[in-house]
Amino acid sequence: MSQAAQDYFRSERAGLLFALMFAGVLVGVAVWLASSGVGFRRGLAGALVAQALLLLGTGLPLLIRDRANEARFVESSARGDESWVPTERARMKAVVDRFPGYFVGYGATLLLSGVLVLAWRNEVVRGIATGLAFFAVFALIVDDVSHRRARGYADTLHAEVTPSDAP
Q: Does residue 166 belong to any structural domain of this protein?
């Protein structure tokens, strides 16, 4: 069981580190865009900075939390204590169950982006709308990968029988 946990957390850590590095790239691109002084680019720059802040605000706490969880699970498994498994099953069920709501939110963000482009002729607003669309597509891809990884780990947790499962 601890190998499944280690594999899951290793993959999550790699994904989170990628997202944090990408946040840095977004800030760099935003600075470059904002320095041009053009309305569309300024709007897009603002949306990219907001996306970078969102990535940092979610990625850093998850990275810290996942490291602590992984250490606790590996340590418990090394002692032969699998009492963490039922709690981890419940946590992963909650994680997997949240993803459909995220996907609906990304769809709504894409819809909002389209409405902004069609309803306003302002270049700054169009830049923001483009940034929102970029965010929704990027987040959809990242969360789809995360969802598949979480679902696989949750399935492994549910398939394993541990002493704590005994009646």
A: no
Q: Which two tokens stand for residue 150?
A: 């979480």
AA letter at 128: I
Contact 114, 132 (CB under 8 A): no
**Is pTM, for the whole model, over 0.85?**
no
90, amino acid identity: A
- Is the four-CA dihedral 89, 91, 96, 98 of positive or negative sign? positive
- The answer to whether residue 167 sits within a structural domain is no
Q: Is residue 107 part of a domain?
A: yes
Per-residue pLDDT of the chain (167 residues; tens, 9 = 90+): 567 778 888 888 998 999 999 999 999 999 999 998 789 999 999 999 999 999 999 889 988 888 888 888 878 877 888 788 888 889 889 989 999 999 999 999 999 999 999 998 899 999 999 999 999 999 999 899 999 999 998 998 888 765 555 55
Q: Smallest Cα–Cα separation from 18: which of 53, 61, 63, 49?
A: 63
Calpha distance 132→112 (Å, rounded): 8
Q: How large is the angle between the packed helices 2-34 and 39-78, nearest 10 degrees? A: 160
Count of domains observed in the chain: 1
**165 in a domain, yes or no?**
no
- The range of the structural domain enclosing residue 108 comes to 2-159
